[in-house]
Amino acid sequence: MKTTQLIKRSLLAVAMPLILIVATGAQAQEYPSRAIRLIVPWPPGGATDSIARLLAQSLTERLGQPVVVDNKGGAGGNIGTELFVRANPDGYTLLMATSSTNAANPHLYSHLGFDANKDFAPVAFVAEVPNILVVPANSPANTAAELIAMAKAKPGKLTYGSAGIGASQHLAGSMLKNYAKIDILHVPYKGSGPAAVDLMAGHIDMMLDTGSMGSIHGKKLKALAVASKSRLAFLPDVPTFDEVGVPGMYASAWYGVMAPVGTPKPIIDRLNKEINRFTGDVKTKTRLFELGAQVNPMTSRQFSDFVSAEIIRYGGIVTQSGAKLEQ
Description:
Order of helices and strands: HEHEHEHEEHEHEHEHEEHHH
Number of strands: 10
CATH architecture of the largest domain: 3-Layer(aba) Sandwich
Radius of gyration: 22 Å
Oligomer: single chain
Number of helices: 11
Largest sheet: 5 strands, mixed
CATH topology of the largest domain: D-Maltodextrin-Binding Protein, domain 2
């Protein structure tokens, strides 16, 4: 009797991994069988939201199931991100991750509610967007040099907005303070959309934003400088900071898709393939190009290595920028 039980246990021990492999494979083949939620940890209207909605529309067509954008803004992107890491690792809840939430925030917040190194399964890199120095259409400053001169004449009086503590706009503004040697006041919002609305209304003086291309071309905002090494093809008349006398002022935000840790690899591979098809599509490239974005397709492993390196790199950026840790 004991021998029979031992044999059964041994057979079960051998069979269980095979059962799990077959079950995972079947799950991946059936995926997706229902709607997918794409959490955007920022309010509607900013660059993250715009890129996420383009991606959701494409994935809906490619996967044959609705991909629904769910905006969960607040706390510099931490509220939506913390909500995401609690989701089941089944591929039906995804996150539009950013350099703010997944690289900068670990160095800015002592209590995140998630572990940037352990709670995510990187799926695919989507795009990178340089920050652009923008001011209201009626701003007296028509060049970056004029704006910097105004800031030096009124230390601590001019304001710059951001999507929240640690957002790309915040870090870029802090960098500008250091590189241009000016004293400007940070005003954090719960997303770049609300900040841009206040900027266009003249309630704040400037932003170093990644999602203002439409407002620039609509003449609701004036673009004074681009925080990249070369001019943007879609804004050929806007100089780089190097050209306006603030050398080395380079800042951009990246965007990518994450799944909860533990998501089956076949599902991650399927999503990676479809997202890379999205970024490789000519129409997609043109639309992202209009947003000032640059694409760089990666495997899930390459994206994982990229994020790990970014977490380390942003430690130096946060220290250099002078941004303070929030409790």
